[in-house]
């Protein structure tokens, strides 16, 4: 039911006659003290593409980014920037400053003794002074910081410093931008604004970007493609829509938000749940199936005038979350099954405790996976 997309290897791309990607990781592996933290990763970035490395803490995102930057030597595998081999076993290891990549991290680390304009000009070595300044000012303008060109970094807020750091990383027109959680130290509202501005600048400049984040919402906002990692491996690569709507495995569903979970056995191509019988025609008879139901998939309709009893689905609690409300519901199925589930509904709908309800499912947000075969 779900797709599993692996990036083509560099040789596949050459054989297919495709133009060279901006960045290509070819079977990259990295070990620390005998433990593999990055395992045979294939990943490519096209010009102008924003790819997010997404995954839980410790899954190897930063290590992979550092390998692309030249800050970490891989145990095996190759790294290409454009058509240039920049890292390979047996000696090739082009240093970070010669890779034509722009780097920005969680903390901005600007030079404190240089003004904002001087900071941004610092990395541009090839242009005469006037053109350098004009390019730096253009980037500061795009990131909303032109007014601060002549001040020193310590007079700026964290968010402003981060904007300057992004301008500095972009100033030498790098082939690839490598960003490691660059927005995570900012408060929510500022983060949204800087994310938005950054995305527009990256797209306008057509810069291939690899962005590390553990935040699925950030990845969906920023990415053309997401590579979701777990334990040093890529579990699924695809557009945000592909990962959200066509997840390869339960881990992918769970990573994008809390879900309701139920386990059932397939009989006659169906599986019984407290929300009714679901189509399970793709599964073997007797298969044990995990059913993952997004809270957004549950449509709740009040049964006016009906008093809830032991066999009627009813509301246990309602909480307003802002744009949405979260309803805790006790669902009763036709086969006598019972389930506590969460439903996310538009924020204006806040039924009272004990309200009898009928429940329907949006099946595009319900995912079935084989758990183990029932014998
Ligand atoms: N220099 C190192 N020496 C030894 N172990 C390391 C080193 N760098 C990273 N690791 C280990 O490699 C694993 C992956 O770390 P990495 O920082 O790449 O993960 P991550 O997905 O970026 O995590 P986070 O989101 O928390 O930053 C972790 O277990 C980490 O402890």
Descriptive keywords:
375 residues, alpha+beta, Rossmann fold, 6-stranded mixed β-sheet, 23% helix, globular, binds adenosine-5'-triphosphate, cell membrane, ABC-type ferric iron transporter activity, ATP binding
Q: Can you give a write-up of this model?
A:
The protein is 23% helix and 36% strand. It starts with 9 loop residues before the first helix and ends with a strand. It has nine helices and 20 strands. The longest helix is centred in the middle third of the chain and has 17 residues. The N terminus is likely disordered. It folds into two domains: 173 residues, P-loop containing nucleotide triphosphate hydrolases (Rossmann fold, 3-Layer(aba) Sandwich), CATH 3.40.50; 114 residues, no CATH class. It is α+β, with helices and mostly antiparallel strands and 375 residues long. The strands form five sheets. It has a six-stranded mixed β-sheet with strand order 6-7-8-3-9-10, sandwiched between helices. The chain has a five-stranded antiparallel β-sheet with strand order 13-12-11-14-20, with no helix packed on it. Adenosine-5'-triphosphate binds next to helix 2.
